[in-house]
Amino acid sequence: METNTLKEEKGVALVIALLMLLILTLIGISSIGTTTFETSISGNERVRTDAFYAAEAGIQVGLNQLPNSTQAIVKTKLKEDSYYWSGRAQDEVSPKNLQSLGTYQRAGFDSTWEFKRFQVNTTGKSFGGVKEIEAQVSYGPFNTGTQYNN
Fold it and tell me: What three-state secondary structure class fits 109?
């Protein structure tokens, strides 16, 4: 007596199809989770980049007002939620003045010339992201007034 093996395997194709569908569903759910996570990372990076460029704008303002270091860079709005000011993040309400670090001699110049050094600290804020930048600047040369006339 001959048995038909196909009759005994009834429903196997359905089980295999359901397992394949389950595997594809799990891969799809994993892909959605990964995409959501990557989107969040790129959004945070954009906020940090905007805050950095806001602080960089503050540095440029500070460099433009040198050698006058007695002024503070007041909180200045760049666009809808981007600001910069001089000082650290906690100085947002009362920005700090630029700092003079004094004078110094530079190689290649004799003692009748000096350079002034300044430190410019600015903070940028954009959509809750905050970045602080510190720049030290050399400004000069200036005549020291120690020239001797014959």
Answer: coil
d(CA 145, CA 53): 40
Cα-to-chain-centroid distance, residue 56? 9
Helix (H) or strand (E) holding 142: strand 129-143
Collapsing DSSP states into helix, strand and coil, what is residue 55? helix
38: Cα separation from own chain's centroid: 18
Q: How many other C-beta atoms can be found within 10 angstroms of the C-beta atom of residue 41?
A: 10
pTM of the model: 0.71
Q: What is the pLDDT of residue 149?
A: 54
Cα distances (angstroms) measured from residue 128 to each of 5, 17, 51: 68, 49, 9
